[in-house]
Amino acid sequence: MPEMITGKKTQRYSTEFKVKAVEWSHQAHRSVKGVAEALDIHPFMLSRWRKEYREGQFAMKRVKKAPADAKQKIQEQDEVARLKRRVSELEEENDILKKSTFSGRGTTEAFRFVWKHRGQHEVKALCRHLNISRSGYYAWANRKPSQRAAENADLLLKVRRVYNASKGRYGSPRVYQALRREGLVVGENRVARLMREWGMKARVTRVYRRLSKRRDDLKALPNYRLEAKKPVAVNQQWSSDVTYIKLGKKYVFLAVVLDLFSRRIISWRLGESLSADFARGTLREAFTSRNPAPDLLFHTDRGIEYRAHKTQALLNHHRVRHSMNRPGQCTDNAEVESFFKTLKGELLHATSFMTLRQLRKHIRGYIDGYYNSHRLHSGLGYRTPIEFEEIN
């Protein structure tokens, strides 16, 4: 503690001592409390000196030196503060590094990254990490949007509207075709770029099928589709298949009948067990709704539910020519496989259903209210199945 001047009730400090203490306390990386502790004085006293210093009340009368160890304490505090700042900077840089995924895409992308994360990090730290100038960033941020940027913003709203209307099921090709149907002239790559930049991706999932190991035992009909011509009207060629859907802790089965000309789902059935009656019921509904002429080509996989005597009797009654996949060639029935992939990706992926009634309601809404009537099909020139049947 500084030496006390005798003869006084209170100790006095030299003006130079006070000025030095005030100057130290005004440095950005130091606090009043830290300087007071180093000088062994009360923080309130240092605060009063700071006020008197601002008011110009100090007069150079006596000279008293600061304590011998004060400088060392101040240096130690400075080093601790410097290390804390460095740790904080490294943690922030590590956090920024985890978020930066645009490496090599140019200065504009770096500016956009700073703009996006300026609420979580200081602009100074972001610019230092990305090696860009703050003046350049602020010039970019304050610049009025170009005509192209304004057009992109307007286009983005339209893309978002189509994407949301499809409940996230449309990728860029279908969004592009939907905008064209509205009369908007725009490039497909531009739509794809906007969707990629704003994270709009189509809902998709992979469908896995386990191939049967008993191929030699499957005595079934040949694949007549390999030699058949492409259908030119409805009710010339149908295709059918069954897939499984997880419902809680068990699996249920979905059977569909699809018209290969228009890709329209003619009939479908959801059940808890896979049997010949299940597949035959779906097929009977299709005959009732479409009443096809004789010599219809009906293609399926080599499942026992389609090879059963009851199913074959129904097909013979309607004079239908039954065609089946080649052993191990599930792509022979690609159209129905594609529908199942679309259904699972756009409706069932990342969604859980607890009851069969709930699942049936959602599948009905998807097939009847969306897939057949609203979903643009790339194989149909980006028309819906119902629309394609009406114009043909």
Give the tags.
4 domains, alpha/beta, five-stranded mixed beta sheet, disordered N terminus
What is this entry, summarized?
This protein has helices spanning 15-25, 32-39, 43-55, 70-99, 107-117, 123-130, 134-142, 147-165, 172-181, 188-197, 276-290, 304-307, 309-317, 334-348, 356-371, 385-391, and strands at 237-247, 250-259, 265-271, 297-300, 321-324.
Percentage of residues in DSSP E strands: 5-15%
Count of DSSP H/I helices:
16
Which superfamily, in CATH terms, is the homologous superfamily of the largest domain? Ribonuclease H-like superfamily/Ribonuclease H
Summed over residues and divided by their number, the pLDDT gives a mean of 82
* Strand arrangement in the largest pleated sheet: 3-2-1-4-5
Give the end-to-end Cα distance, rounded to a whole number of Å. 102 Å
Quaternary status: single chain
Largest sheet: 5 strands, mixed
- Which stretches of 5+ consecutive residues score pLDDT under 50? 1-9, 60-64, 210-218
CATH topology of the largest domain: Nucleotidyltransferase, domain 5
> What string gives the helices and strands in order?
HHHHHHHHHHEEEHEHHEHHH
Assigned CATH class of the largest domain: Alpha Beta
Query: Could you tell me the number of beta strands?
Result: 5
| Rg measurement, Å | 38 Å
Morphology call: elongated
Under the CATH scheme, the architecture of the largest domain is 2-Layer Sandwich
* SSE class: alpha/beta
The total domain count is: 4
Instruction: Determine the fraction of residues in helical runs and give it as a percent range.
Output: 40-55%
Family: Belongs to the transposase 8 family.
Keywords: Coiled coil
Pfam family, one: rve_2
InterPro entries: Homeodomain-like_sf, HTH-like_dom, Integrase_cat-core, RNaseH-like_sf, RNaseH_sf, Transpos_IS3, Transposase_8, Transposase_IS3/IS150/IS904
